[in-house]
Amino acid sequence: MKVKTFEDLSVWQDARVFVKSIYELTSLENFKKDYGLKDQIQRAAVSIMNNISEGFERDNNKEFKNFLGYAKGSAGEVRSVLYVALDLNYISKEEFDENYKHSINIITQISNFKKYLHNYSMKEKITNVKSFIFQLININ
Questions:
Q1: pLDDT attached to residue 124
Q2: pLDDT on residue 133
Q3: 78 alpha carbon, distance to own chain's centre
Q4: Domains of the chain by range and CATH?
Q5: Could you give phi then psi for residue 25, rounded to 5 degrees?
Q6: Closest C-alpha to 77, from 122, 40, 33
Q7: Which residue in 86, 73, 87 sits closest to 45, CA to CA?
Q8: Is the dihedral of CA 81, 115, 60, 56 positive or negative?
Q9: Selection from 9, 19, 8, 3 nearest residue 110 by Cα
């Protein structure tokens, strides 16, 4: 399947589902009263999908990889805040585990996507160098 928009990216789709899960989690009775923590985890979760989409729209693999790095960092931030929520008994161990696994899945997808973009750009550079050398050989 050819990706035409950021909405076509499975990692963005998964991040969107994750945001919904985080918003549902933060609507729980204990969690919703801690405005600072609730705001922090919600913003970090939204940042994951926003950085993926913003990077995609830059039409530049180098910048896209940078934004994927920001998205990965935001996913790590969500993971860290999940520990705080667990330690404060805002969420159950099951809720923690489910969201922790989801964050790891997104982080893994982002890491793999960054590797793909890196390898793709390396192939492109090699192809350009080979093409340049071929042109030089044919000129002489």
A1: 55
A2: 46
A3: 11
A4: 6-139 (1.20.1440.60)
A5: -65, -40
A6: 40
A7: 73
A8: negative
A9: 9
Rounded Cα distance between 52 and 128, Å, is 28
User: What is the rounded CA–CA span in Å between residue 128 and residue 134?
Assistant: 10
Structure tokens, 136: 């030089």
Kindly tell me the burial class for residue 123, based on how many C-beta atoms sit within 10 Å of its own C-beta (0-12, 13-18, 19 or more).
exposed
The owner of tokens 């993926």 is: 52
Q: Which residue has tokens 């899960």?
A: 21
Residues of the chain with pLDDT under 70: 1, 121-140
In the prediction, which pLDDT does 126 show? 46
Find the helix packing angle between 61-87 and 93-139, rounded to 10°.
170
What pLDDT sits at residue 117?
A: 86
- Would you mind telling me the total number of residues written for the chain in this entry? 140
- Please, are residues 68 and 114 in contact by the beta-carbon 8 Å criterion? yes
